Amino acid sequence: MTRVNPLRRGLGAVAGYVRSAPGTYVWLAVLFVTTVAVHHMSPGFEQHFLRRRSTNIHELSRTPLRVLVTSAMWIDGGRWLPYAFLYTVFHAPAERWLGTARWLLVCVAAHVLASLVSEGLLLKAIRDGIAPHSAANTLDIGVSYALAGVVGVLTYRIAAPWRYAYLAVAALVFALPLTEAPTFTDIGHFLALLIGLACYPLTRGRGKAWNPKETLTALRG
């Protein structure tokens, strides 16, 4: 009887998981490349370079489509590993469950709508004299709006009553920053969560919801 090397079996399982969520891991690979590129830039050039790819008011008024795409290809802060973890925990399960096309639609909806609404609110604040005019060039890049949207839609992946506990934790995480001096990005994250929840129609026909109790029972038995 041929014994399978545990390391080889483990690598095969990882490779299979990655293949089951191609969009997630291609996106993550792009973020790895762009993060490495940022680490090779001087601080001054980095700020100028990223601002040109930011969904701030100035860039949205000039080239909205370009910055809405490019802003999702960079990470503010240059830390890739936390995103690798978050993509594996949230994006990959969502893509495997919904399928790549529906998952991508949730990501695009959350990223685009949350960016436009939050920047619209910032523009109003500038016009009302609440925020300075320099805020029109605020650096606003990253993938967190899409991530918040996926966190929201994953609520429907979990069976009741567990989904309500999951939703309560998610809502608390994104609502807590709104209780004290919220920024436009804090508002954008909460909006993205709501947009993900509004994507319920995309979850229909995607199979039975996951029940943690059944999983625990299977592991014990």
UniProtKB/TrEMBL annotation:
<keyword id="KW-0472">Membrane</keyword>
<dbReference type="Pfam" id="PF20401">
    <property type="entry name" value="Rhomboid_2"/>
</dbReference>
<feature type="transmembrane region" description="Helical">
    <location>
        <begin position="24"/>
        <end position="42"/>
    </location>
</feature>
<feature type="transmembrane region" description="Helical">
    <location>
        <begin position="101"/>
        <end position="123"/>
    </location>
</feature>
<keyword id="KW-0812">Transmembrane</keyword>
<dbReference type="InterPro" id="IPR035952">
    <property type="entry name" value="Rhomboid-like_sf"/>
</dbReference>
<dbReference type="InterPro" id="IPR046862">
    <property type="entry name" value="Rhomboid_2"/>
</dbReference>
<protein>
    <submittedName>
        <fullName>Membrane protein</fullName>
    </submittedName>
</protein>
<keyword id="KW-1133">Transmembrane helix</keyword>
<feature type="transmembrane region" description="Helical">
    <location>
        <begin position="187"/>
        <end position="203"/>
    </location>
</feature>
